[in-house]
Specification:
This protein has one domain: P-loop containing nucleotide triphosphate hydrolases (Rossmann fold, 3-Layer(aba) Sandwich), CATH 3.40.50. The protein is 47% helix and 13% strand. It has helices at residues 4-11, 28-41, 51-56, 66-85, 99-109, 123-129, 134-139, 170-185; strands spanning 17-21, 46-50, 89-93, 114-119, 161-163. The protein binds adenosine-5'-diphosphate (ADP).
Amino acid sequence: MLSRSQKEMFLNQKSIVIWLTGLSGSGKTTISENLSTALFEKGFLTQSLDGDQIRNGLNNNLGFSEEDRTENIRRIAEISKLFINSGIICINSFISPTEKIRMLAKEIIGEKDYFEIYLDAPLEVCEKRDVKGLYKAAREGKIKNFTGIGSEYEKPLKSNLIIKTAELSIEKSIEKCLNQIIPLINL
Ligand code: ADP
């Protein structure tokens, strides 16, 4: 059987999971897309996983109760492990609102393969951006348990990197990410 390191050598990269956490509208999708393009241009192969894609497909039987949120993250972490075992860098965009949930992901993936980036933007800014109109819907009571409104987002305490997306441009944010990530994925 081919080993992970043989596949990493084939792809000329070390595989890790980059886990983006933050409120809805904090910039997870934007950073994931720009980061995968920037990495691709430098010769690195990535796979992005995000909330909507996973919840519409693999996890379409799960809701937002604590039990379902945990199962959602458990499955995502297991899928991420499959990618890194194939040598592919996995970029995950999930709100992952509690320390418990982030620790579960880290535990399944393994600490040395888990790089957490906290996209730190104030709720007011995310709500103003309201990219998908979800904050408006949550304020109108149409979405229960929406993170930041009806349910809490616990600020991460142990992130590997914090990006203040309300203060930095997208370009500067990507530059900060690349500075930290490139040394980790260079073979
Ligand atoms: P999320 O995936 O976390 O819900 P999105 O990426 O969909 O967030 O939305 C973030 C919004 O904020 C986008 O409209 C993006 O253009 C804007 N934005 C402004 N500055 C930044 C930054 N530094 N990083 C990421 N997004 C930013």
